[in-house]
Design brief:
By secondary structure, this protein is an alpha+beta fold. The protein contains six helices and 19 strands. It is about 20% helix and about 40% strand. The strands form two sheets. It has a 17-stranded mixed beta sheet that branches. Strands 14-15 form a two-stranded antiparallel ribbon. InterPro entries: Phenazine_PhzF-like.
Length: about 300
Amino acid sequence: MARVQVFVVDSFTRKVFSGNPAGVVLGGEGLGEARMRQIARELNHSETAFVLPPEGSDHDVRVRFFTPRTEVPLCGHATVAAHYVRAVAGGTAPGRYRQLTGAGSLPVEILRDGEDYRIRMTQGPPVFEPPLGEDLAEAVWGALGLGREDRGDFAPVQVVSTGHSKVLVPVRRRSALDALAPDMEALVRLSRVLGCNGYFPFTLDDPDPGSLTQGRMFAPAIGVREDPVTGNVHGPLGAYLIRHDLVPRGDSLRFRGSQGDSSGRCGYLDVEVDLEEGEPRRVSILGDAVLVFRADLDL
């Protein structure tokens, strides 16, 4: 009989039952992929992270991410959760580490913050696909339920990635964002066409205090109807804001993004984008976390 440690962590918050919950599993190096999928399905959070020993000299730890339905290359809030658990339960000291993921080997920092910790996750270089053509953009707006008066035509509907691509959809008014009731089956069909499973409508209108942006995330093609607070999208969002001149250009951009109001799980994260010759080159996110519970699982 094998025993693994299972944790549930709320990421991008310091209050339990808010932010984005993730499962974290320690001691699962003997588990096969099928068993990992079963555990992720049983926990039933949008993602569960399995923290595994390194497989080579180019990284310090390997992390695999599973939704209740499938493995994904990278997950922001589960990365924060995994390294927060490494610090508070695994005895890992503050410092800079390299995690091997499905998106490659990426730096992660465990930062001491008073008596607690923050996690900084460096994402991959921003990659911009061409803006969606008129017909596909119309299909995305329609599937999300956005009327013409609420579509943010000041910037394109576009797929952007820093390791795990998302469809960024500007929205003109916060009230329209909050009222969205997407056609999930239509989004699933569009995912097959676009080769991208996550849709992030966002607005610069009336964000939560201290934040620049407000957003929502829908990814029904991978079993996530709505994700409360999404780390993997805010890196691409920061690069997108710069690329389309929605914020002033300088040497860097620092901002806070908020998400989760519509699902009753408010959370926030800080985004850092470094520029070279006026273009976004290096993206990272910083997040808080709180441990909800831990348990031993005998298999």
